[in-house]
Specification:
Residues 53-155 form the BACK domain. The chain is an alpha+beta fold and 487 residues long. A hairpin with a 2-residue loop joins β19 (374-378) and β20 (381-388).
């Protein structure tokens, strides 16, 4: 280690590997070589994974690296359902387990994962750890579990059957279930629904945030922003971008505004080359792509992309067809756009853009014509949902396999709709709002590909069509966009 440190002193570089990184970090900390300590911390941060994050978290308790310590702990919380199956989790102290499972930021889709984790930790060394059962169980949010799971898995567990404190704790939750509202964990991602037309067909600037864990929408006050509909929304670099659409008196705009999630303020950025309402927007390789749309006179085939670093829009090759009311998504380094309206009729066609060659390629057409469709990448496939076929509003859905260039049908939505928004949150596909015949709806439902079933979610506060949604993740102020824990 001294040889490496002396070479670093002369050359400013060091040959760091997985096998020597920890010893080098300890030596650099002991000798107070701040620059080398930081290099080691950067190395550890890049190496963070489910198998080593607890080890790095524990190491930085002993050695002063507060930033890495927080990042390692955040990694443990964010990847908890993977971390608990590693050897490092089984070696934790009871207090360390409590520190993890008591956090609001613990990322678990079902609270059952927390219960099963503590059982796994206790049964690894039952004689030494059984005494912590009631202490650990008190940090599990039992009221967030289904009653059926509590009765079939919790009450019947051998560690709990002979523990009177645990039995009393669980019985109290079951008895008071109607009066107790559980405090959900903070979600790993938030669904933001922006703007649109309300049930009176008036432009609105309403923004609502959906907490998938609490199944609850929260209104984000946004009185200062101009109302907008038939726009695109994208989350990139900590900002939400609103792209094009109709603003004020139903005039297509080329303006682009971005929303700072920490200050809740709006800022104008560079406008697009073209005015675009009914525009299709997605994010790929750190850029925002805007395709097609309607400029007030023509349905467009042109497309362009925005670079945040230079605050500049650049044009790309035009699509094969004019498309407004289409929808698009990014998958495996390419962009897929489906359906829409070309001025003459609703479209069944779809095409794919390769940014490396700047070329569009027509792919197999969908089974239905779909204008006002929702398109999203989900489970390495492209999903096309709902829309309008020229005669009827649709509730059907289909999925495209890029490897076989084929479409297949999946279960239909519970509600027919078009001009809605679609996103994937925590491995489920959500459809939000839209028009269901003659009126704007606040209805929300989600699809689970494992069961091929649609289920109802909590309705928005406001019925809206032509809104746009995006998904926010890794926010430092995530709690600002979720239901307050004391509600």
């Amino acid at each position: 280690m001294m040889e490496l440190i002396i070479k670093f002193a002369y050359t400013g570089s060091v040959n760091m590997t997985e096998s020597n990184a920890q010893r080098l970090f300890m030596a650099a900390d002991y000798l107070n070589i701040v620059e080398l300590v930081q290099i080691c911390c950067n190395f550890f941060e890049k190496m963070l994974c489910a198998d080593n994050c607890i080890g790095i978290w524990q190491l930085t308790k002993t050695y002063h690296a507060p930033e890495l310590h927080l990042k390692a702990f955040h990694y443990v919380l964010s990847h908890f359902e993977e971390v608990v199956f590693g050897e490092e989790f089984l070696q934790l102290s009871a207090q360390d387990v409590i520190d993890i499972i008591s956090s609001d930021n613990l990322n678990v889709r079902q609270e059952a994962a927390v219960f099963e984790a503590i059982i796994r930790w206790i049964t690894h060394e039952p004689q030494e750890r059984e005494g912590y059962t009631d202490l650990l169980l008190s940090e599990v949010r039992l009221s967030m579990m289904p009653t059926e799971y509590i009765q079939s898995h919790v009450l019947s567990n051998k560690l709990l059957t002979d523990n009177l404190q645990c039995q009393a704790m669980v019985s109290e939750v079951i008895k008071c279930r109607d009066r107790i509202v559980g405090r959900p964990r903070l979600p790993s991602a938030i669904l933001l629904a922006i703007g649109g037309l309300n049930s009176g067909m008036a432009l609105t600037n309403v923004i609502e945030a959906f907490d998938v864990r609490a199944n609850h929408w929260m209104n984000i006050r946004n009185l200062s922003e101009v109302p907008r509909a038939y726009h695109g929304a994208a989350y990139l670099g900590g900002y939400v971008y609103c792209v094009g659409g109709f603003a004020q008196v139903f005039i297509a705009t080329n303006s682009v505004r971005r929303f700072d999630l920490s200050t809740r303020t709006w800022q104008e950025v560079a406008p697009m080359y073209y005015h675009r309402a009914n525009v299709s927007v997605t994010v790929l390789n750190g850029c925002i792509y805007a395709m097609g749309g309607y400029d007030g006179h023509t349905h467009l085939s042109c497309a362009e992309f925005y670079q945040p670093e230079t605050n500049q829009w650049l044009q790309i090759a035009p699509m094969h067809q004019q498309r407004s009311h289409a929808s698009c998504t990014a998958l495996n380094g390419k962009i897929y756009i489906c359906g829409g309206f070309d001025g003459n009729g609703e479209l069944q066609t779809a095409e794919c853009y390769n940014p490396e060659t700047n070329q569009w390629t027509l792919i197999s057409p969908m089974s239905s014509r779909r204008s006002g469709v929702g398109v999203i990448a989900y489970n390495n496939h492209v999903y096309a949902v709902g829309g309008f076929n020229g005669t009827n509003h649709l509730q059907t859905a289909e999925v495209y396999n890029p490897h076989t260039n084929t479409w297949r049908n999946i279960s239909s939505m519970m509600t027919l709709r078009h001009s809605f928004s679609i996103e994937v949150v925590e491995e489920r596909l959500f459809v939000v709002g839209g028009i269901t015949g003659i009126t704007a709806t606040s209805n929300v439902e989600y699809y689970d590909s494992e069961t091929n079933e649609w289920s109802q979610a909590c309705d928005m506060d406001v019925g809206r069509i032509a809104l746009s949604c995006c998904v926010l993740s890794d926010l430092p102020n995530m709690a600002d966009y979720t239901i307050p824990c004391d509600s």
